[in-house]
Amino acid sequence: MAAQAQQETALEDSRRDREIGVEQEHLDRVYRRLEEKIHEAEFLMNDAAKRGQVGTPGALAERDAQVFRAGVHLNRLNNEFEDFLFGRIDLLLGKDGKKGPDGAYTAVEPAEGAVREDNTADIAETLHIGRIGVLDQDYAPLVIDWRAPAAAPFYRSTPVDPGRVVRRRVIRSKGRRVLGVEDDLMRPELKAFLDGHELAVIGDGALMAALGQARSHTMRDIVASIQAEQDLVIRAPAASVTYVEGGPGTGKTAVALHRAAYLLYQDRRRYAGGILIVSPTPLLVAYTEGVLPSLGEEGQVAIRAIGSLVDGAEATLYDSPSTARAKGSYRMLKVLRKAARGALELGPGGRTPQGRPASGGAAPNRTGQLAFGDDPADHDTGTPAPAPAGPPTRLRVVAFGRRLELEAAELERIRRTALGGTAPVNLLRPRARKLLLDALWAQSGAATRHSDPELAAELRSSFDEDVSTEDSFIAFLDAWWPELTPRAVLAAMADERRLGRWARRVLNPGEVRKVARSLRRDGYSVHDIAMLDELQAILGTPARPRKKRDLDPLDQLTGLEELMPVREESQRERAERLAAERVEYAHVIVDEAQDVTPMQWRMLGRRGRHATWTVVGDPAQSSWSDVDEAAEARDEALGTRPRRRFQLTVNYRNPAEIAQLAAKVLALAMPGSTSPSAVRSTGVEPRFVTTNNGNSTVVRDSLAQTVREEAARLLDRVDGTVGVVVAMQRREEAAKWLAGLGDRVVALGSLEAKGLEYDATVVVSPAEIADESPAGLRVLYVALTRATQQLTVVSGERDEPDDSGVPDLLRD
Ligand SMILES: Nc1ncnc2c1ncn2[C@@H]1O[C@H](COP(=O)(O)OP(=O)(O)OP(=O)(O)O)[C@@H](O)[C@H]1O
């Protein structure tokens, strides 16, 4: 028996080696062709450089265009040289004989007679799929770009609906070497022949091989194993709104990133306006950042955390759930509108009573840590408040030899009239100035001096000119109607009494206290960033003279400055500059959309007023408490554009053992909803550990020690990363528990775990996580669904474990 098994293995190995050899031959051909193309690109660059020396405007423009094109080409080839060929499909003869622009036949369905009556068939076409397309000298496809229509069957074909595909192969290669192949047979009932030989089938399929791999701290692309339901989303037409829901691990983030790459491939010109991908946390941005470059896309896509969308301000703080609820809800809009108008009373310099400069930056707090909650003892600056300067209460000018004066009451009346307009507050300043001049003019009595309207008008205009150029008038206007910045207004809201006035009948006194207190911390939270953005819209920016860029004197002479990039700027810098200057996008992708608050939806809406959208999320993972209000805000941001809805149903992350446990929390958090089905099982059940010594008391040291031991245990059992998920308030403490265990293990607050995944996780005290906010059960559901292989749950003080250590929240 053993000898027979050995023989079979040897046979299998030799078949595998033969197939690897076949793919190696193809890869060699592709590399030879790529080298030719690189030479072409280099020749173009040199040639262009020579042309540049001629120096005529026409030659300069041509040189620049060529250098640009050749540079892009070289860049792509060099980037994608690594592991860029990853797939192959062997197809039956198609229905018609038509070929697409990439040289492949376009038919999806097989021709009649492609399968013979005895269930045999010949392979009519073989296509290799890679990160970019490569044609040979005769324009036959050596590699098809994964985003091209001809590559779609690689992803769409299933045994239920195979189309023309007989065999789908995933090729694993490193540099110039093919390392392995994994095949899926789409028509297992068929005996298919390629060049007279029966088609070989190697391995158990690529998906399982991909899913079993150890995780690192960065996400990998899934280009070689995109599944049919995911492919439908990635290639959905970009018109209007693509709306994708799916449980944890169904690939929503992966799909969103691949969709960005696909859209750029499909219509680069249209998306020259940029694609914005919004992530909930900087951790998730860092985790996903490498995926697009691996797909050959970078420049036109900006991946930003929702707390980094406002230039010059970065969210570094967390708000407690109740403060977040007040700041993120629609009610805050009313408060901000009042504040923006009321803040004029700040007077010059924009100093708040707390002494914090109103234009204060987003420095991290004193300890340099991210802070959770808004306990004044921790975060108050503690600086005694100097008296505010306040706005001036009297205007005095001299005009036409007379002393004119407006008193406080009159000034107040004028301010109210000016604010009666609906324009942004900063743009109302000219109107206020005009009303002041009207009042002074009326007081001067000069209007009655001339009955001739023309003379009267002339007199008025010289009066206006005299007064408005007077130093005292200019200084008064600057102090009385200062140009407000969003930061100044937000800082002004840190004063509780003042905020109380602006928020009357909108926020309750407790909310006012908490919001004001949180705004006294150094730095901003994600919710503050949305408030800053809203304030920017409410205040407006007065037009300023445009600063001219430094120009190359030669470009100025030839008038080419608009056509050519500034000389010293590299292509990458240019792309970055354009991205930084961009305020609106052609397509906006919102990841973890279930967590976006109403105020944040307004901020996103302003960035995609004319955009098409892809919105991905999972209501069951929402940490936002008022789901209906958020849905209303989302609908407002997306407008009336038609929506195309997709549902992802398969969990690729968690093994069935972990998914089943998480489903129990889902049933509590959102009764009636269904969990995605896990695609694999590891046979390793979640482990339950309790620090509860039997009388419901937990020694704190014991919790620290237990978590540390469990993390160390998991580090021994998995090759990749271990995440320890704790309630937000324990984050700093938990990091200390893990000191010295190395960089494969990290401690995370429950909200920070959003979207991330680890080989193994330790979830610390389910009850503590669930009790932390009104959406706590959904946050716990997120925490429990982060592991790709193993999960340990450690009960804490608040949990009630049974005899097996299973805490109450995780029992049936
Ligand atoms: N077709 C696929 N082939 C291989 N791996 C996949 C595939 N689809 C998803 N995965 C993997 O499954 C994991 C989960 O994917 P992803 O993070 O995109 O899911 P998600 O739906 O955004 O999850 P969550 O809602 O929990 O944030 C990732 O490791 C991803 O690479």
Automatic annotation (TrEMBL):
UniProt superkingdom: Bacteria
UniProt binding sites for ATP: 246-253
PANTHER family recorded: DNA 3'-5' HELICASE, UVRD / RECB / PCRA DNA HELICASE FAMILY MEMBER
InterPro entries xrefs: DNA_helicase_UvrD/REP, P-loop_NTPase, UvrD-like_ATP-bd, UvrD-like_helicase_C
Keywords linked to the UniProt accession: ATP-binding, Helicase, Hydrolase, Nucleotide-binding
Record flagged with keyword Magnesium: no
Region span, Disordered: 344-393
Domain UvrD-like helicase ATP-binding: 225-655
Protein's recorded name: AAA family ATPase
Biological-process GO terms, alphabetical: recombinational repair
Recorded GO MF terms: 3'-5' DNA helicase activity; ATP binding; DNA binding; hydrolase activity
Gene Ontology, cellular component aspect: cytosol
Cited Pfam families: UvrD-helicase (PF00580), UvrD_C_2 (PF13538)
